[in-house]
Specification:
By secondary structure, this protein is mainly α. It contains 5 helices and no strands. It starts with a helix and ends in an 11-residue tail after the last helix. Bound molecules: MU-OXO-diiron. MU-OXO-diiron (FEO) binds next to helix 1, helix 2 and helix 3.
Length: about 170
């Protein structure tokens, strides 16, 4: 059975992951509107991964005989006006998720919940990957500038991203 403090913070993390999905979908809609279908694809795939992140927490809480509790998901906020600015916003968002996962990991140690400490390692590694993926795109945009041809080629590259489901096992 999971301890109540851990159950509460994992439920809060579910909400953050689903909020992340909303945020990426809002960005995907923006990119689609301005004709960048590759950027739209990349953020849509990311939204699906965020739902997986929430569902892995959901399945873990149930596996530990805990209670899943849903809170209201905030509407995504943000003024999207150009691809680099949106990706910088994504980078800041992912850094905040990393900080949130670090707090969860710290609490599992304080509460001596080694099962959840072990479980949360997957998220720690996933955040390293997520920050890296975003930062690499930002670096490319900064290195090659914002001319239309650069965006066009990057859009083709981002169109190749495919969704691969992550599951709790
Ligand atoms: Fe689930 Fe992008 O953090």
């Amino acid at each position: 059975m999971i301890n109540k403090k851990i159950e509460e913070i994992l439920n809060a993390q579910i909400n953050k992951e689903f909020y992340s999905a909303y945020l990426y979908l809002a960005m995907s809609a923006y990119f689609d509107e301005v004709g960048l279908q590759g950027f739209s694809n990349w953020t849509k795939v990311q939204a699906r991964e965020e739902v997986d992140h929430g569902m892995i927490l959901f399945d873990y809480i149930i596996a530990r005989n805990g209670n899943v509790e849903f809170k209201q998901i905030e509407a995504p906020t943000g003024d999207f006006h150009e691809p680099l600015q949106v990706f910088e916003m994504i980078y800041e968002h992912e850094k905040s998720v990393t900080a949130s996962i670090d707090v969860v990991a710290g609490m599992t140690e304080d509460e001596c919940d080694l099962a959840t400490r072990n479980f949360i390692d997957w998220y720690i590694a996933e955040q390293v990957e997520e920050e890296k993926n975003v930062y690499e795109i930002i670096k490319k945009m900064k290195m090659f500038g914002s001319e239309k041809s650069v965006l066009y080629h990057l859009d083709l590259e981002l169109a190749k991203r495919e969704y691969r489901q992550h599951k709790y096992s």
